[in-house]
User: Fold these one by one.
Assistant:
Number 1:
Amino acid sequence: MWKKKIYIKGNLSPFALSRTKIDLFIDCRKCFYNEIVRGIKRPQGPPMALNNAVIYNIKNEFQDYRELDKRHEILSNLGKDFVFAKNTELNDWKNVFKGIRYIHKNTNLELFGTIDELWFNKKEQTYSVVSIKATSKKEELNLEDIPSNYWRQLSFYNYLLKKNNFKVSNLGYIIYCNAIKNTKKFESKLMFNTNLFSNILQFDWIEEKLSEIFEILQGHNHPPPSRNCKYCEYVNLTNLKI
């Protein structure tokens, strides 16, 4: 599958780079280079339709509470100072075709990402970025079960908000819905346990990775694959010329 827009050195227009592409770079630089510079994308697996449906419904529920100015139970657990943010830009930030954006001056990369949810602390006058995830595991979810890239995602969104001159808390939140498997009757319903996790976000990796990305995009050499990249391993096993 070929990507319509690829990175061209010397182009004066900012090049749009999403949070998912930065994750791709962290996962495998060769796969990143193939997609961004050569237009060759990794094979994609089937869409996670059920997970996405759960997340979609939660987002809509929060939006209903926001519009009605009602207090949601999940915010009540954090205290009276937390409310749903009501920025005029929020709808754009949630839109996958727009998102929140910032042009990084040193690299001319237009960084962007799509925010799931945003909360506001009235006492501290700070915003908190929120990510919504869904899964189905027999075990109860704990903070240690959350993949590091989920917190990295929140750190990147927090970074974008700061660059857009918003005062943001360094504490990020993840709402993790876990489908219960041991229900006796299905009755066309799934039951969930909803977990709220928080963590202090780290930002020191962002500028470093952006510099590394820019160096590879400006270079002439094809970067080597990651040792753990199953896609590059498959290419090597099949002798494909990519």
Number 2:
Amino acid sequence: MQQKRVYENLFKRCDSGLIVLFDPDRTKLSEAVKKIEKLNRNDMIKAYFVGSSFQTSFGLDEYVKGVKDNTDLPVIMFPSSHSQLSKHADAMLYMSLISGRNPYLLIGEQLRMVPFIVETGIETIPTGYILVDGGKITSVEFMSNTKPIPRDKKDLVAYHAKAGELFGFKLIYLEAGSGALYHVPFEVIKATSSFLDIPVIVGGGFKNIKDIENAIKSGAKHVVVGTAVEKEMLFV
């Protein structure tokens, strides 16, 4: 049985910072390991996510183990389906797409994850996942068959997040989508985080340190970056 401390240590006690997302479809394990060697020396990096909107690569267990073997930071699964789970992860985001109206992503996929969770005892972090318009159709929007909340509707985003908190979620993830043209607006982050008593993380579209710092100042506990690290726009 794994010790269940990731949520408390990373999202409650830890200073704000960055979580780097590795997509096995876009970054080979050998490339990820090379990046991790550099990233481990950066105090801004607090954890690693592993996940994909549409996993086409095989060997997910090997990938997660490879990431975990090269860092002392938490390695957390960011699964879009029940097929994207690994026993080697320290924890997993147990996500429900609460901004959409697709019932399968509200409870269907989550139900199919239950046998794995029970068998492994992996720490689950109940997460309300909210898609915010990032200026283009992203993979998560297309694959989930849901529309994002308009980026100028900060109250609507905050109300969805509050509903998630009232349902008992422990974390809210505001997502503009991988490779988004624009990140979630700072005013949306501020309106949402100030409305909640649970942590808010935000990802998608962040390309420079200044915007990351402003997101944290606006109330984000952590900022999730993937494409910017993959394309070496950050931490070259």
Number 3:
Amino acid sequence: MKDLNEGYPANDELDEESSDEQSELFEHFHFDVDKGQTLLRIDKFLVNKIQNASRNRVQNAADAGTILVNGKAVKSSYKVKPGDSISIVMAYPPRDVEILPENIPLNIVYEDNDVVVINKEPGMVVHPGHGNFSGTLVNALMYHLKDVPLFSSGEVRPGLVHRIDKNTSGIMVIGKSEIATNRLAKQFFDRTTSRKYVAMVWGNMDEPNGTITGHIGRSIRDRKKMQVFPDGDQGKHAITHWKVIEPLGYVNLVECKLETGRTHQIRAHFEHIGHPLFNDDRYGGNLIVKGTTFTKYKQFVHNCFTICPRHALHAKSLGFTHPTTGKEMFFDSEIPADMQQLIEKWRIYVGSREIEE
């Protein structure tokens, strides 16, 4: 058995502020069936192979078309044969922790019977854990969707197939049924979704665009950070494409397109190439990384930190295939007010420098 588990930590202690470290919330297993295997229904086979997988959960995956045998989707009644190559993608099961619904306002961009798309505010924890069992996105969803069966159990992690960090803002999609959630999970696993972020990073990029490639894993020196391992002997494969939207002197506004969804991927990748995100206290962006030694400049930067008191990162757009209709869906969002003010302040600063020069 090979467990190709994507993006789920053994524990959630990476960040004491939040358990929002992972972008993807699904698990993937692959099995090559032994030559001596007798004919057996695939739902029974997988329940025997996967720890804590109920037959109902496996059958839901089959109904969603996320169980493949030799590359083709099969029903739960399929009889496993010797030599079969089986893969299954499922959203993570709820944790055995009760989460109470809370009437917390949500910025809902789109909603139908199968999915809800939200524009998450900065500062909101997505997933409950480690002292954050209230005030989270899941608590808010439990209230908003309290009449939807998937959200009425009071268990953790309903509908989530990806997440973004506490202090990152932006677009997320949530499934409203087991089948919708599993189908969305498979899209994230297959990397058929389209995700673009906008970030402000320290320093002037040498090229107008580029790609950062490097395995990402937990830092050897600081267990609350992620680290890039260029040789690929540790961590998980990660690719971030970027292009400069606007050069702003000692900082650049960049667009990032993700091929993978690793823990703190954008934040770790840009630190790795010497351009940490502006005001990212975890990855060194809360220091004056570039610029002059003048007191006036230092005060300007600290004022910028006050305007945007978080790492300057926004999940601007998300594209996916609707899990029921098959229609291509795309959602875009405005850059939030704190980042807009930050960008404008740097524009004014750059303009004043040009006048002086």
Number 4:
Amino acid sequence: MKNILDHIKNFLNKGTMDAVTSFCSRNKRYFGAAALFLAMILVLYNCTGKEPEEKPNPSGGTETEGGTSPEVLEFELDSEFEQDANEALNALVEAYYEAYAGDNLEELEKIAYPISNNEKSYIGVFSQYIEAYQNIVCYTKSGLSEGSYLVSVYSELKFYSVDTPAPGLDFFYVETDADGNLFINNLYSPYNLSRAENEMDPNIYSVILKYEQQQDVAALRQDVEKKYNDAVAGDVDLATMITTTIPNAMREWIDSVNAMEQNSESAADTQQTGEPETEQAAETETSETTEEPEEPAPEETPQEPETVKVEVIDDSVNVRNGAGTENDAVGKANKGEVYTKLGESGEWTQIDFKGTPAYIKTEFVQPAAGE
């Protein structure tokens, strides 16, 4: 992994890489889910990756190889991949990518779970830049238990307003539920592997590490890395998307998450350490409640509300049927388009979208010229 990262460092200028590394180290608990294409995997691994000789322990620490169960020590991985050999598994992965690109959390949670609230928030930000996942190929090996699979998925990530798709390699641990249906165990997603928000089975994690060290897995990774480097070197728009646009979006997202957590912690501290009312405060409150009510102001003649127009300042922004990324997208708004503003709700602006009230992130609009 470090060798692969060196290639990315050679591509990115030193100032950019140092800034990303510094930024990741300050906010590493939020990263992992961005590893949906190869470049982000490499950069995020540099910020959050665990050392290969360690694996999660349900008690909260780590286990060494000596603590691995006999089941894992005796387990032998398949020597070769099967490529697109399981139709049900292929359909599962394709459905995952389609739901992810569309920020369709309701469908996503039916086939991949658990998904934390922070990961859902991240998906809402990242998916706004995704047009589609293309040319999906599944490479599978049998997992630790019957009906489970270790899956490396090659895909080409097509961003809006970028001609060249970015080749990438994702990992999924797929299992079979009690009804015989396949599902993605999201405990072993890059997001949870880096943050450990949900407890992982150390034996499964140990098998995943073995899998990642196999020669054919490493060879596949190197092949995809070359395709990725060629794609980025040949398209300046793709390079800009990966080195500037996405990191900027992540910075804003992390800042917002940090702010919300700080507010929550401050509120909790205030609740726990709140002092009882002083006598003076009680008297003030009493005096305020006993004051005579003011004379009502004379009624004014209601006026028609002023029509306000807003202009979209970013390309291909999701427009949703509610104020939140958990709501369904009803269409896309493009840069330069002007809409009538109907109101605001938190970080969202309500607009008249083709005759229907809908919501767009406020950060993606500005007052239209002449407003």
